[in-house]
Each structure stands twice: as structure tokens, then as C-alpha cells.
Amino acid sequence: xxxxxxxxxxxxxxxxxxxxxxxxxxxxxxxxxxxxxxxxxxxxxxxxxxxxxxxxxxxxxxxxxxxxxxxxxxxxxxxxxxxxxxxxxxxxxxxxxxxxxxxxxxxxxxxxxxxxxxxxxxxxxxxxxxxxxxxxxxxxxxxxxxxxxxxxxxxxxxxxxxxxxxxxxxxxxxxxxxxxxxxxxxxxxxxxxxxxxxxxxxxxxxxxxxxxxxxxxxxxxxxxxxxxxxxxxxxxxxxxxxxxxxxxxxxxxxxxxxxx
Length: 260
Hints:
By secondary structure, the protein is an all-alpha fold. It has helices at residues 3-9, 16-45, 48-51, 54-70, 72-88, 94-140, 142-165, 171-179, 185-208, 222-258.
């Protein structure tokens, strides 16, 4: 096609290949969003939330433990896959699955399973959010998003760690919002895993004592919530002390440089 004809056909100067690529990208985004929505609808339509019950787990604990003892690798693999799927699709039940991991696999193996599965699932959810939503959000709020991106580049890892450490916001909301930023995938993964480790340990340990737990709400006692708050405040205090020390060192260096 001559250049003049191409320009008339596409006043923005994009080639047919670019247009096809954009159409393919839109179709892929739509298909992925549809797949996620369909999986969530099927989960609730089949009553999946009813299987994530503490009473059901306690009733079937002996049977599950027996099957786990006979087929440890299969059970571990299936549990890992289910946890990744639940967190990647932002389905309810992560707390239940963490308790179940403690009950079935013990403290050490349960902590390892949940720590890696939850971090991988969260990373997948973040990447899905980035692929499906970031482009449209950037087109509508480009200036504001650019400012947020600059903030994330400077302090993103620290704030993500705080959000993971102190469970003030829902798990899936953090994944969704961080997907709209330019936070690096590897940074998101390891900071999430480190920040969620304290909560993972608490819930897995509670799962090892499943017979004494009456409800999911009893896991988070006022004392435990206070411990989480202290854990969240500590990095802020440590950061403030570090900044003060850095400022003093800079002042000392400056004064020494001004001496004759």
C-alpha cells in the first residue's frame, strides 16, 4: 500500500500489523478477564465456599491425615495448586486453607507450603491486574498514575511490606492495586512473601492446634492484633531512626567539609 493511501486509511500512522496486534491484545485481555470471572462464578455456583468450612475440616481431619500419610506428595501438590488458584483468583478461603495446611502438614511444612503458594498466587493476581487493567487506567489517569509510579519506584517495596505485614486491607485489593503500578514482579514477590510470613506463621501454628479453635475469628485475639500493630510500627520507627542518623552523618560531613 502506498504511503499516502496508508495515511488516509489510518490517520494516526499505524500500520496494519500494529492494528492487528492491538486487536489481538484487546481480545487476549477480554479472554483472560472472562476466564477469571467465569472461574469465580463457577466456584460460587457449585458451592465451593461451603467446602471451605472449619467444621468440615475438623470432621474430615482424620481421613485427610490418613490419605496424606499414604500419598504425601500427591496431597502436598494438590494442596499447593489449590492454594495458588484460590489466591490468584481472589477467592475467599485463604485463612481456612492456611489453617488446613497447619493441620495436615504440621508447622514447618505447612508454613513453607503457604508461604510460597500465597506469594505465587498473589504475584499471578498482580500480573493479571496489570495485563488487563493497567493500559485502560493509564489512558484515563496517565498523569496521576505516573506520579504513583514514581512514588512506587522510590518507596514501593517499603509500603508493600507494610501492607503485607499489617492486615488492614484485603489480600486481593493489594494485588489489584499494585498491578496498576510499575512495581517489579520480583520485588512484588519477595516483599510479599517476607511481609506475609508473620501472618502465615500465626495461622499455620493455629492450624496445628485445630481442635481448640472454635471459629476463624478466634485466631485473631486482641493480643494478637496488638502484636501485628507493633510489628507494623517497628519498621516505621526503624526507618525514622535510620533517617535521623543519616541526616546527622550528612550534617557532620558538611561541617567537616566547611572547615579551613
